[in-house]
Design a protein that fits this description.
mainly beta, Jelly Rolls, 6-stranded antiparallel β-sheet, 1 helix, 27 strands, about 5% helix, about 45% strand
Length: about 350
């Protein structure tokens, strides 16, 4: 193995292992059936599932913590950020600040939990006459101690503002890069949330999704400094990274100071790439809370029990929006974006 460029190659489990400043990544691909009047699967499809804790793939999909609609009913977070990247399907967001949204293919939601927020992420099955496939990533990005208690904030990076770069190799084979955070060569991603570790370019945070055409060759350039860099090969057949053969469902830890050349085999290949300078602070995590010490974790539970991080202003724990509602974002200050 080229140890000068490749640090490690590991199989990917759920959730995917990550390196500081990232905490982990959860990848969800679900082939949901047609929806009923309540935008969930017909009850007959729920037989034999562990409702409320359904993470077993059955007939190609899961309910997660949903009881009637797939997804994650209201739950708290403190001390980190979620970056939700939508490749297919619909996600409905609602939170304890009164903010809400619906986003779809190519959209990204970036949420800073900061001092504490409750939110729900539901996957309504809008199509009644055809299937409702869903494909999303949720990346957890840590916050440094100085920003653990900032005000919660969420931002939409709509698909028409996320830059897409297409490169051709010498054989005219394509590699397509979606630049979600940071930059790729001369292409800059939209600004992240203001208190994010990614907001300072010196932290070299990069979030990219990449599709390589079958037979394509692509060279990913070195970063401007030392950072943790991980490439997740989640769909395809086989690739060659700096001469090393790698099967799908493997992650590759890469040297950020080196250009990395990838040669694809006979199927399209899909990747998520996460990069960033480490925060280099202690991490204490318990479920939805990520702090620096165990005492801070205990305090987070106490604060949540006392305040519920603002309560829940919505009528349902599994809050979804009207079926005919388009993509939108309603912010806590009343500002609304409609796509």
């Amino acid at each position: 193995m080229n140890t000068d460029k490749i640090i490690a190659i590991k199989p990917m489990n759920f959730p995917w292992e990550a390196q500081d400043p990232f905490l982990f990544c959860a990848y969800h691909r679900d082939e949901y059936p047609a929806g009923n009047d309540q935008m969930g699967p017909d009850p007959v499809h729920l037989n034999g599932r562990n409702i409320g804790q359904d993470f077993t793939v059955k007939n190609g999909w899961r309910m997660y913590h949903g009881s009637a609609i797939p997804g994650f009913p209201y739950h708290p977070h403190r001390g980190f950020e979620t970056i939700t990247i939508n490749k297919e399907g619909i996600v409905d967001h609602s939170d304890s600040l009164g903010a809400a949204g619906r986003f779809g293919k190519g959209d990204v939601q970036w949420m800073t939990a900061g001092k504490g927020v409750q939110h729900s992420e539901m996957f309504p099955l809008l199509n009644k006459d055809k299937e409702n496939p869903l494909e999303i990533f949720q990346v957890w990005l840590n916050l440094p101690k100085a920003n653990k208690f900032v005000e919660p904030h969420f931002k939409m990076l709509w698909n028409d503002v996320v830059p897409v770069v297409t490169e051709k190799d010498d054989d005219n084979k394509s590699t397509v890069i979606d630049v979600i955070a940071g930059s790729y060569k001369d292409t800059q991603a939209p600004a992240p949330t203001p208190n994010s570790w990614a907001a300072n370019p010196e932290n070299l945070v990069n979030v990219l999704t990449v599709k390589m055409e079958a037979g394509a060759q692509w060279t990913f350039p070195a970063a401007g400094g030392e950072a943790n860099r991980v490439l997740y090969f989640y769909k395809g057949s086989e690739i060659t990274v700096e001469g090393e053969s790698v099967d799908q469902n493997h992650l590759i830890q890469l040297n950020s100071l080196k250009d990395i050349t990838i040669v694809n085999s006979d199927h399209d290949a899909y990747f998520l790439m996460l990069q960033g300078k480490p925060i280099n602070e202690p991490v204490a995590q318990y479920g939805p809370f990520v702090m620096n010490t165990e005492e801070e974790i205990r305090q987070a539970f106490e604060d949540y029990q006392k305040t519920a991080f603002g309560g829940w202003p919505w009528p349902l724990q599994e809050q979804v929006h009207d079926r005919d509602k388009g993509r939108f974002a309603l912010h806590a200050d009343g500002r609304e974006e409609v796509r």
